[in-house]
Design brief:
It is a single chain. The chain has about 210 residues and is of the alpha/beta class. The chain has a single domain, classed as Vaccinia Virus protein VP39 (Rossmann fold, 3-Layer(aba) Sandwich), CATH 3.40.50. About 40% of the residues lie in helices and about 25% in strands. It has a seven-stranded mixed beta sheet, sandwiched between helices. Helix 4 links the parallel strand 2 (about 65-70) and strand 3. The longest helix has 14 residues, at about 25-40.
Amino acid sequence: MKRILEIEIMSDINQCLAYSKGDFSDSNGKFIDYITGSVSKPSNVLDIGTGPGDVAIELSNIYPASEFLAIDGSAAMIEIAKSKMSNHKFNNIQFVECNLYDLELKNKFDLVLSKDTLHHIVAPISFINKIISLCSKGSRVLIMDLIRPKTVLECKKIVDEFNLDPILKKDFMHSLYAGFEINEVSELLTSFSLKFNTIRIGVRHFLCDITI
């Protein structure tokens, strides 16, 4: 099955609320476990496509001395993420409505995170180029995203395994259509001559660990 593009920004409020109420604890937990098991003390962390902010908030508690910038192009998602900050222990995270390509900062990041964002990206080469421009030498970039099934029928079977809100069910199906095969991601990164390792993590995700 060829990749079918999904909208880049989730802007509909009902769609954002449905997503924020979804249970992503398993994949979020696997991502966080990998990060904490392989990254010691990052200074400046960028979370791209933070969505409702769950991963960024959890990590900012784990790394209280680190500064986090969590961005999303959806104003609704950023408002949802900010609403979760009442229980946050530390003042080390900013949630900003921002398109990645508009981000221009003097300070570079030594850790860049992207979970379930790549499948929204229309131009992945431009996406990786922009990330590289925001990193200092030796920075780590960790990208976790959905593996695209081989057929539409397989996508449907995966979605039907879960008791999902109708909006979330539709979004999940479209996200699977827009995912990547592991070899496609490896070919993409090879074109940049970057040091990287791509692994399967869980049943439906891959994780790319990149050194700039």
